[in-house]
Amino acid sequence: MQTLEIGALSYFCERMSRYTLVSLIALLIHFSACNYDNEEELYPTSSCETVDMSYASDITNILQNYSCLSCHSSVSNEGSVTLEGYDNLKTWVDNGALLKSMKHDGASPMPKNQAKMNQCDIDKIEAWITDGAPNN
């Protein structure tokens, strides 16, 4: 009788170990699939307002924030590019070089030896150009 009890106990422990192992593996797979990413980081809400861009208040501020005029003014005129004043800027808008250089796409990348401009600022300039680059 004692042999039967030991055999049954051994069988029970062996089966229990298999179930425990299988259960642990299943739980491990289940929980490793869980990911707690922050939705705001994955899908940021766009706060870039590109409607009704103004040359006087929006575009000139962007050019000043990136120090574009420190190299491309009527005084420095680096690379024979002057962005100071609406008419000078419009020349580079019309030939496409302004946006290409800001996007680092097919023209000398600007700002020179620095990271590309913030995408929102590029989008603002592009929206202004799409609206006809008005002198407003």
Task: Describe the protein's topology.
Blueprint: H1 2-33, H2 39-42, H3 55-65, H4 68-71, H5 86-94, H6 97-103, H7 119-130
Helix pairs in contact: 3-7
Q: Tell me, rounded to a whole number, the average pLDDT.
A: 84
Separation of termini? 101 Å
* Overall spatial form: rod-shaped
Taking the sheet with the most strands, its summary is: none
**What percentage of residues falls in helices of 4 or more residues?**
55-70%
* Helix and strand element order: HHHHHHH
The number of domains is 2
Give the count of helical stretches.
7
CA-atom Rg in angstroms = 32 Å
Alpha-beta classification: mainly alpha
Tally of strands: 0
Low-confidence stretches: none
**What portion of the residues fall into strands of 2 or more residues?**
under 5%
Description:
By secondary structure, the chain is an all-alpha fold. It folds into two domains: 2-34; 55-130, no CATH class. It is built from seven helices and no strands. It has helices at residues 2-33, 39-42, 55-65, 68-71, 86-94, 97-103, 119-130. The longest helix has 32 residues, at 2-33.
Summarize the structure.
The protein has helices at residues 2-33, 39-42, 55-65, 68-71, 86-94, 97-103, 119-130. By secondary structure, the chain is an all-alpha fold.
Q: What key attributes describe this structure?
A:
mainly alpha
